[in-house]
Amino acid sequence: MAEQVEIFRASLEDAIEILTLQKLAYQSEAQIYDDWSIPPLLQTVEETRDEFSNSVFLKAISEHSIIGSVRSRVIENTCHIGRLIVHPEWQNLGIGTRLMTEVELMHRDVARFELFTGSNSIRNIQLYHKLGYKEFRREPLGNKVELVYLEKVMIGKKEDIGYKNP
């Protein structure tokens, strides 16, 4: 099943389908925090389209449907990764890992990768740790949520990539 999934760069025409998937995928996060007003659930089509001007979107495709996505944006020498999503029926099959790997390959010339998730999003944190990300900061976000910031610092050159755990 997961081996039939292909990953491509998304285009502006994919914005509505990605946003629809995002709202479905983030329902589990809203349940964890008992907060249905989290930004991924409130984002509009216009806001998503605007992100295409400064971010690279990837999409995971199965039988012509988008079943996963992630976005990235390079600022200075850091690749900021956001909104890794996988359709609930396709989770735990390695699709999130494949999307993250593609982001890292696309941006292999940066010094570090950075992302964040909620402190109660244990499955997300476990995935990021498995992929070599280390926590470097926590920040409160309202009364219910604490954000956990994780990074992967790269050493070496494009030809000699290794991971350094700060």
Automatic annotation (TrEMBL):
Q: What is this protein called?
A: GNAT family acetyltransferase
Domain spans labelled N-acetyltransferase = 16-155
Q: Which Pfam families match?
A: Acetyltransf_1 (PF00583)
Keywords recorded for this protein, A-Z: Transferase
Which PROSITE patterns does the protein's record reference? GNAT (PS51186)
From which domain of life does this come? Archaea
Q: Which GO terms describe its molecular function?
A: acyltransferase activity, transferring groups other than amino-acyl groups
Q: Which InterPro entries does the annotation name?
A: Acyl_CoA_acyltransferase (IPR016181), GNAT_dom (IPR000182)
Instruction: Return the CDD domains for the record.
Output: NAT_SF
Q: Which SUPFAM superfamilies does this one have?
A: Acyl-CoA N-acyltransferases (Nat)
